[in-house]
Amino acid sequence: MTDPKKPDQNSSDDAWADAMAEQQNEAPSVEETEDDPWAAALAEQAETEAEQPVGGDASQPTAAGSQVFKPLDQGTGSHAMRDLEMVMDIPVKLTVELGRTRITIKQLLELAQGSVIELDGLAGEPMDILINGYLIAQGEVVVVDDKYGIRITEIITPSERVQKLNR
C-alpha cells in the first residue's frame, strides 16, 4: 500500500514500522532493565515463576497474611473462649437512669440548693440500665449496707431497644 502523498514510497520501506516490529520481538537488554526498576522486577519475577514447578511444594513462600491472621472459619469452642477473654478487661460505663426531663435555660438558672426537678419516671417504675449509653436492661433500686444498688429485673432484647427508642 502506498501513501497518496508519496506515491513512490512503498510500505515495506517504512522505517518506523520495521523498528516497532523489531522492538516488540526483542527481549529487554540488561542495560535497559537496570535503568528501569519495574522492568528488572518483572524480569526477575518471570525467571522465578519459570523455575518453580506448577504443582508447588512446601518450600514455596506463602502470603504473609496467612501466617499473621487466623482463618475465621476454623473457630472452635476453646478458641472462642480465649478470644472472649481478650475483651474481659475493657472498661465500660454503666449508668442507671431514674428519669429525664426538659427544662429551659431560665429554669436551669433558677435552680438552687434544695430545688426539686420533676422527672418523667414514676415511683416504683423500673430504672433503665445503660452500658456506654445503650439501654441493655431494667432494674429496681436496692439498699445494701447503706449503699444504693440496682437489681436487674429484665434484660432488653434488640427489638425492644428499637421500640423504646421510638418513644
TrEMBL record:
Cellular-component GO terms for this entry: bacterial-type flagellum basal body; plasma membrane
Cellular compartment(s): Cell membrane; Bacterial flagellum basal body
Region ranges (Disordered): 1-76
Residues covered by the Flagellar motor switch protein FliN-like C-terminal domain: 86-156
Membrane topology summary: Peripheral membrane protein
Domain of life: Bacteria
InterPro entries: FliN, FliN-like_C, FliN/MopA/SpaO, FliN_T3SS_HrcQb, SpoA-like_sf
Pfam families xrefs: FliMN_C
Entry's family note: Belongs to the FliN/MopA/SpaO family.
Protein name: Flagellar motor switch protein FliN
